[in-house]
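Ticket #4471: structure output looks truncated?

Reporter: J.K.
Steps to reproduce: submitted the chain below (443 residues) through the standard prediction queue, then opened the result file.
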Amino acid sequence: MPSQEIDMHHDTDVIIVGGGFAGITAARELTRRGIGATILEARDRLGGRTWTRDTALGRELDLGGTWVHWIQPHVWAEITRYGLDLVASPELDTAYWRAGDEVHTGTADAMIDLLDASMTAVLADARRVLPQPYDYFPLSDEIKSLDQISVAEKITEQDLDPQQRALLDGMWAVNFSGDPTRAAYTQALRWCALSGGDWKLMFEACATYKLAGGTQSLLDAITADAPTADIRLNTTVTGIDETADGVTVTCSDGTSLHGRRVILTVPLNILGTIAVTPALGHGLSALAAEGQASSGVKVWIRVKGDVGRFAALADSNAVLNFVQYEYPLDGDSLIVAFGPRSGLIDLDDPRAVEAELRKWRPDLEVVAVDSHDWTADPLSGETWPMLAPNQLDAVAHAARDTTRRTRFAGSDYARGWAGFIDGAIESGMQTARQIITELESEN
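Returned output as attached by the reporter:
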């Protein structure tokens, strides 16, 4: 096998830059075929934008990627493989929604009903445009045209009253973790097509089922299945240099590593922090400089007392625009909130968070907060990856380019569930399989 033939010119077969779900999945697939794999991870832990840890709120929580679903085939296959269990977020009773300064209250079903017609209209063409949602490359003229459109533009086309417009705008701000004016309409269509054209099923996949042991339980299971992988934490990559006989990866401490292939899994928004020679093609460098669409925040909040099972939604102008009850805890309530723009609120300040919650419910008293600002994090620069208009073609080309020794993997590059753990696993798996085929044919 290739790893048995590593010589003085190659330290390992494949160097994987980044130890999130894409990187660790790729390492498992490679090492199970006897191919040497070294993961270089800048953080002091694996997991990337997923992170399960004890919090200031009194229990372990997922500060990053959280929700999974059985309609996502790659993550579900892994959950089945390792015998992991899911837990459901609670069924919600009450909803609060804001249109301007006016707060409306009703059942959770009533809020969904208000959204139904406009969400259905915006996504009506999903299955027609993407009848096989994993197979859309090369992009058709229609998809290229649709990729120039933002979700905000599609919202503007709808004949809606103020409540409906605020809800529709707010829902897409949550889905994209960002401003709908920078949200690619094609990404919305992709998610809906993967959900069989049913936006309610799509929303269920976004925010209903979680791993009982947190995302860490799945990450640990995959990692344990790659015992021969060389994992190096606290190792920041600064350069990748492709030559005729391999790839040299340089780290910030001055060390370097030489291999046959590189799998680059860092988020798109920090891709420019690594000097790649020859330069990245397909317009990827320009895309990285522009940045993809997600720019939001996520915060876990402990609220005093039993506040009921509720959700709250506001438009994309809100600092926090979506709130959902998740757990009871020692007589208090744990809720999770999202906002579309980082930097507008101090997520470590309970009173600042409380002030935003009270725009829906003046009775809420915040006990403690905990979060991690992924957008401000220099190792991520984004939350879950969501493309902006005119970015799909560049990402699709990069994900499929097998002409270079440097390959791309990660949820940013997923053919299917981009923005989810499923997409990271899919991309890591597919990239690894391509490299396995190539290296086995070379030896």
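Triage note (M.O.): checked the attachment and the full token line is present. Residues 101 and 359 are 8 Å apart (CA to CA).
Status: closed, working as intended.
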